[in-house]
Every structure is written in structure tokens, then in C-alpha cells.
Amino acid sequence: MNHEKDVQFTAAGTNINEVKQKNAQAGLSYNEVKALLAKSGGHGTSIYSDTDIDEVKQEIHKHQQ
Questions:
Q1: Which has the closest alpha carbon to 43: 52, 34, 31?
Q2: In principle, which of 15, 17, 45, 60 could form an S-S bond with 38, CB 3.0–4.6 Å?
Q3: Is 51 within 8 Å of 57 (Cβ atoms)?
Q4: Cα(38)–Cα(56) distance, rounded to whole angstroms?
Q5: How far apart are CA 31 and CA 14, in angstroms?
Q6: What pLDDT sits at residue 37?
Q7: What is the DSSP string of 1-65?
Q8: What pLDDT shows up at residue 4?
Q9: What is the pLDDT tens value at each position of the chain, 65 positions in all?
Q10: 16 and 10 in contact (C-beta within 8 Å)?
């Protein structure tokens, strides 16, 4: 297998495979960070939360009675 044929470059000369490899090793993605903030109470992240709103409302009303 010829390694030079596997290497792909953008029009600007960026090695696509190298960028993909570095991104995979870089840590959390932008969306992963947003999801983590949503779970830990970050500002403006409620749309990413996996909280069941109806369940929370039921729990609140159960304790008010």
C-alpha cells in the first residue's frame, strides 16, 4: 500500500488525515462540552439537558401536598 496515495490535502495544503488524528486526540468536542455544561448547570444550556421536566414537576408537587 502506498502511503502517499492515502494522504489527502485541502486546496490550502492541509493534511486532512493529520487534522482528523489530532482532533481525535484533543479531548472533548464542542458539542460534548455543551452537553457536560447542561448536566452541571451551565448558563443557557437548558436545551441540551436530559432532565425530564414532567418528572421534576411531579416530584415538586408531591412534596407540596
A1: 34
A2: 45
A3: no
A4: 16
A5: 24
A6: 81
A7: --HHHH--B-TT--BHHHHHHHHHTS---HHHHHHHHHHHT-TT-GGG----HHHHHHHHHHHH-
A8: 54
A9: 445 557 799 999 999 999 988 988 888 888 888 888 877 776 776 666 777 778 878 887 887 76
A10: yes
